[in-house]
Specification:
The protein is 11% helix and 47% strand. The protein has one helix at 2-29; strands spanning 33-41, 47-50, 56-61, 66-75, 79-84, 87-88, 96-99, 102-105, 114-121, 128-139, 143-152, 159-168, 171-172, 176-181, 184-186, 194-197, 206-211, 221-227, 237-242, 257-258. The strands form 4 sheets. Strands 2, 3, 5, 6, 9, 10 and 13 form a 7-stranded mixed beta sheet that branches. The radius of gyration is 33 Å and the shape is rod-shaped. Residues 35-123, 142-242 form the Ig-like domain. This is MAM domain-containing glycosylphosphatidylinositol anchor protein 2.
Length: 259
């Protein structure tokens, strides 16, 4: 009888010892767990918004500093790797640095925009992956190019000279153009001798001012203003062109200068 009780007590103490050892292991090493991950920003964002499927869109102005932190949980401690849509972020040269899960890009360029992924894995379960899309805003100085056509009827009943002023600028988001003549805004329909349009093949990144059958008032100072509506605090940029009576019938001299 006593032997049976001793066996029960021994079994009880054994279970108690195993449970105590388990608690000590949890306290000293932590419970094994598969990784989780989330991305936070600590840089100079113009705007951060949620897109569908819980992906964040991080908008930043070209030349600013991008800083993204990858926060992970899991035991053992997960290994962290940053990648970009077009390859590993760790393979990018120059102004990119990686430190303890933080991705930092100083003086970011338009070519460094895109989708960035943070991947964490510790050998338990599937890797945890989160992404964020970086949208870099910029606006280049617009450039005016000049074209002239001389159309003469075979019968020589009339002679028409038409000038095309083409304004183009690289930007993100898409640029909006305004033409002025001697500081007066030109709009479609405001002058029968002026036509303003966007070529079908350019998707809005250029705007053409057509001066039909040149008149005296067409010899003036023209300005093309490019704007992205102050997005990210980026100011409008402009370029000027002077059309004067010294321009020949076969060539036009242009002077591009920025405000």
């Amino acid at each position: 009888m006593g032997t049976e009780e001793d066996e029960k007590m021994g079994l009880l103490f054994g279970l108690l010892w195993l449970f105590t050892s388990f608690l000590q292991g949890v306290h000293s090493q932590g419970v094994y767990a598969s990784p989780t991950v989330r991305i936070v920003h600590a840089g100079q964002a113009c705007n951060v918004e949620e897109e569908q499927y819980s992906e964040r869109v991080y908008t930043i102005r070209e030349g600013e500093t991008l800083e993204l932190q990858c926060l992970v949980t899991g035991h053992p401690r997960p290994q962290i790797r940053w990648t970009k849509t077009a390859g590993g972020a760790s393979d990018r040269p120059g102004n990119l640095s990686l430190n303890s899960g933080t991705l930092k890009i100083e003086n970011i360029s338009r070519h460094q925009g895109g989708r960035y992924y943070c991947k964490a894995e510790n050998g338990l379960g599937f890797p945890a992956i989160r992404s964020i899309r970086v949208d870099v805003y910029y606006l280049d100085k617009p450039v005016i190019t000049v074209h002239q056509s001389d159309d003469e009827a075979k019968e020589q009943f009339y002679f028409e000279r038409t000038v095309f002023l083409r304004c183009a600028a690289n930007s993100n988001p898409p640029v909006h153009y305004t033409w002025t003549r001697d500081r007066e805004v030109l709009a479609e329909g405001s002058d029968s001798g002026v036509e303003i349009y966007k070529p079908f093949f350019t998707q809005g990144e250029t705007k053409i001012l057509k001066l039909k059958n040149l008149r005296l008032q067409d010899y003036a100072d023209y300005t093309c203003i490019a704007s992205i509506k102050n997005a990210c605090g980026i100011r409008d940029r402009s370029t000027h062109f002077s059309l004067n009576n010294r321009t020949g019938t076969k060539a036009l001299r242009s002077t591009n200068r920025e405000n």
